[in-house]
Amino acid sequence: MKYKPINPELFRLNRRRFVSQMKPGSIAVFQSNDLMPRNGDQYYPFRQDSALFSLCGLDQAGTVLVLFPDCLRDGFQEVAFITKPTERSKVWDGHHYTKEEAAKISGIDKICWLDEMDSLLHELIVMAKRIYVNTNENDRFQSEVPSRNLRFAQALQQRYPAHKYHRAQPIMKNLAMIKSQYEIDLIQKACDITDKGFQRILDFVRPGVAEYEIEAEITHEFIRNRANGHAYTPIVASGANTCILHYNDNNQVCQDGEMLLLDFGAEYANYAADLTRTIPVNGQYSERQRAVYDAVLRVLREATPMLVPGTTLEEYHKEVGFLMESELVGLGLISKTDIKQQDPVHPAYKKYFMHGTSHHLGLDVHDLSNRYVPIQAGMVFTVEPGIYIPEEGFGIRLENDVLVTDDGPINLMANIPIEAEAIEELMNASVLQ
Description:
Blueprint: H1 9-19, E1 26-31, E2 37-39, E3 42-43, H2 50-56, E4 64-67, E5 78-82, H3 87-92, H4 99-106, E6 110-113, H5 117-127, E7 130-133, H6 148-159, E8 164-167, H7 169-177, H8 181-202, H9 211-224, E9 229-230, E10 235-238, E11 259-264, E12 266-268, E13 271-272, E14 275-280, H10 287-303, H11 313-330, H12 336-340, E15 380-383, E16 386-389, E17 394-397, E18 400-403, E19 410-411, H13 420-427, H14 429-432
Parallel strand pairs: 1-7, 5-6, 7-8
Antiparallel strand pairs: 1-4, 2-3, 4-5, 9-12, 10-11, 11-14, 12-13, 15-18, 16-17, 18-19
Helix pairs in contact: 1-2, 8-9, 10-11
């Protein structure tokens, strides 16, 4: 891995938190992600299952974690199975964990080879009354591709039909929403690397530069600072592309007078950052661009202090909607009459601000969470208002990552320029020298 070693106490802490919510007599099994076929004999770059990684930190395919806190067999309360290195794998694939390395990374004493798992796991399961299985329960995502965890859960139910089965994801959601200081530090590192990527391109962007060239500059900065790469497919959108929320073709040439919307974030040690800035291609906002920019920035700054313990995301998003209404009226995009006559289910402001303002952030850019749980200290959110005006040929979105505390939100991207004047100054610094 490119990232520096992580304190194994993070994974010990997460395991303690997980098993404390398991029912008595239960065993939990977590599978690593598949190596996903790309084409021919090639695979996509491996990315570890977030739940497994959060519990043991083993960032390698062919890994299985078993938690059985009530196990009667000494030393098997927690065990990790890893792929056994062979002489051939060393030559063709490179280094794989030794048992000693896996134990050091994870803080788990009992490390076994994967080819030992079938008989050992059978012995453990027949001692258990209940089995926790880990499947993807993101409530806004459904995949036609069955994951290794899903296939394994189905196989267990075939083999052990008399056991009681439980979902690991509700517990994982509770854990993932509240970040420990170890995790906050890793997210901050991802944000700091993202800052370096943004600062790099402020001196690079100019009329005639292609979106893909800008993406390349960001990627360069990420990799050279030990990031895994991008936490999600980067959006580098110029001109009318700024109004496409998930634009990622990144193949157009930036023109004089256009806006450039940049939505990207580094992934460091599998933890994500999520940044959006919208900058002028020529280094100078027009009067209209600046008016819209400042409106979005005001919404961001007024929304951020609303992320306090006890508030629900539903209440929060409703209040941000009122802020956006006011700004859109001021910009002449909607009228007070539009607001009076609006459908409450589809308010008038949604014509120009059609997405939510905040989502949880962590091991996933849209992190595992229960959106109906009140906001609590330790949660990390994005704050990303935007105004998109297709008829004027540009959109503006701004985004920071924010940690909720009992003493008020902390902006994890406080060092990343956001004021229009600061961006213009940095973009034109080399010209003035």
